[in-house]
């Protein structure tokens, strides 16, 4: 009798397995997603590894393009503000306006279109803001820039009566219109264009007044072959 009670107490004091806590209920989704058309059960989550790589690459490329365009417009506005006072200067109707010469030549591995696009994107907005006139000297093959610049310099070195017949120049002279007396200005776009520009300056100012003769390329003559005799 005395021993049964402690035994009963020992039996009731045995450890019970720990009860699992109740699962935490999920919060209700934001009704904003429902109104935006994503559904009632839409829950935003972190994208997967591949999506993170894709978004990082495309985001970096897009940011670089946007930054380049923004900086290009900022630099263009800066230079346009610096030259816009030139377009506001009054012009004398009896004096020809200032005209710039723009020298363009395509890179060796590309055509002339690349140089033209470069001029339209970076140079033309500044010239338009300045109100200046310009003329193109385009080289479509090797040596065109050098030859045209040298010929232009040789004509400027000649006396007016030695330059030949110039109908437009004669009309301007009879009307009393004079040329612009200041510095006209040259714009050279491209490294290879600059090389030909320097060679043209050297040939035009330090060379003779007459154009040097072009080298004659000797073509090999086709030797006449004797007729083949028919077998008898």
From TrEMBL:
<keyword id="KW-0812">Transmembrane</keyword>
<keyword id="KW-0653">Protein transport</keyword>
<keyword id="KW-1133">Transmembrane helix</keyword>
<dbReference type="InterPro" id="IPR021056">
    <property type="entry name" value="Mt_import_IM_translocase_Tim54"/>
</dbReference>
<feature type="region of interest" description="Disordered">
    <location>
        <begin position="1"/>
        <end position="27"/>
    </location>
</feature>
<comment type="similarity">
    <text>Belongs to the TIM54 family.</text>
</comment>
<keyword id="KW-0811">Translocation</keyword>
<dbReference type="GO" id="GO:0005743">
    <property type="term" value="C:mitochondrial inner membrane"/>
</dbReference>
<keyword id="KW-0472">Membrane</keyword>
<keyword id="KW-0999">Mitochondrion inner membrane</keyword>
<dbReference type="GO" id="GO:0015031">
    <property type="term" value="P:protein transport"/>
</dbReference>
<dbReference type="InterPro" id="IPR050187">
    <property type="entry name" value="Lipid_Phosphate_FormReg"/>
</dbReference>
<feature type="region of interest" description="Disordered">
    <location>
        <begin position="208"/>
        <end position="232"/>
    </location>
</feature>
<keyword id="KW-0813">Transport</keyword>
<feature type="compositionally biased region" description="Low complexity">
    <location>
        <begin position="14"/>
        <end position="23"/>
    </location>
</feature>
<protein>
    <recommendedName>
        <fullName>Mitochondrial import inner membrane translocase subunit TIM54</fullName>
    </recommendedName>
</protein>
<keyword id="KW-0496">Mitochondrion</keyword>
<dbReference type="Pfam" id="PF11711">
    <property type="entry name" value="Tim54"/>
</dbReference>
């Amino acid at each position: 009798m005395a021993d049964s009670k402690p035994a009963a107490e020992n039996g009731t004091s045995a450890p019970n397995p720990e009860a699992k806590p109740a699962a935490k209920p999920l919060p209700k989704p934001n009704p904003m997603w429902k109104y935006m058309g994503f559904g009632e059960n839409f829950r935003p989550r972190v994208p997967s590894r591949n999506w993170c790589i894709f978004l990082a690459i495309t985001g970096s490329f897009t940011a670089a393009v946007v930054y380049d365009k923004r900086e290009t417009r900022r630099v263009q506005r800066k230079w346009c503000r610096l030259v816009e006072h030139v377009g506001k200067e009054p012009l004398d109707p009896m004096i020809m306006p200032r005209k710039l010469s723009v020298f363009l030549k395509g890179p060796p591995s590309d055509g002339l279109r690349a140089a033209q696009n470069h001029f339209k994107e970076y140079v033309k907005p500044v010239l338009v803001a300045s109100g200046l006139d310009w003329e193109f000297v385009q080289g479509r093959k090797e040596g065109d820039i050098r030859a045209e610049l040298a010929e232009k310099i040789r004509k400027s070195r000649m006396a007016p009566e030695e330059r030949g017949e110039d109908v437009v120049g004669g009309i301007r002279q009879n009307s009393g219109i004079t040329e612009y007396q200041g510095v006209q200005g040259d714009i050279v776009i491209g490294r290879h264009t600059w090389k030909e520009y320097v060679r043209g300056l050297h040939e035009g100012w330090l060379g003779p007044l007459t154009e040097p003769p072009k080298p004659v390329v000797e073509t090999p003559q086709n030797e006449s072959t004797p007729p083949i005799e028919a077998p008898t």
